[in-house]
Specification:
Layout (H helix, E strand, L loop, with lengths): L20 H23 L9 H6 L6 H22 L11 H11 L2 H14 L4 E8 L2 E8 L10 E7 L6 H4 L3 H8 L5 H11 L1
Antiparallel strand pairs: 1-2, 1-3
Helix pairs in contact: 1-3, 4-5, 4-8, 5-7
The structure holds manganese (III) ion.
Length: 201
Amino acid sequence: MSFTVPPLPYPYDALEPHIDEQTMHLHHDKHHQAYVDKANAALADTDLAGANVEEVIVSLSALPDEKQGAVRNNAGGHLNHTLFWESMSPDGGGEPRGEIGSRIESVFGSFESFKECFEAAGVARFGSGWAWLVLDGGELTVTSTANQDSPLELGQTPLLGNDVWEHAYYLRYQNRRPDYLQAWWNVVDWDVVGRRLAAAA
Ligand code: MN3
């Protein structure tokens, strides 16, 4: 079974004004589709054809050398974007409650401090990549990756990720990546993040 782009769980204009409809169309229908198509092409006729995307990402070294770069970038792109669409909702925003809320407070001091830390990781990522909240050895940590690298490659469990490639924000925010990072909190679905934490525990 090859990879497919999952449908968005909300309409394309549902995250307005924080993420604009045109960006969602291009990002989901064109960018994510391209990662899926290229990942499928690179994986065809390999031992990992048909494996789920998480398994592919933790098994890159099992692939022939000449396939590893394309699979890392494109299966990584598929994994990261699937998680990204699921992490947002028109009913998102607000503060995390329950276990995820209390753990963020205990590690970062407050939700505000956590957001500053996460935004700083996104701003500091030179070029293209992602800012992440991950579980690393059972501890909540903020990190970032380059390109489409997944925290899974490092043995971390991604709980929440924001795409800081220019294609994610340039139409509405132009060069103002920090503004995009701040506005994004309005659409984060903390219930989804909480369920990821529970599933990883
Ligand atoms: Mn993207």
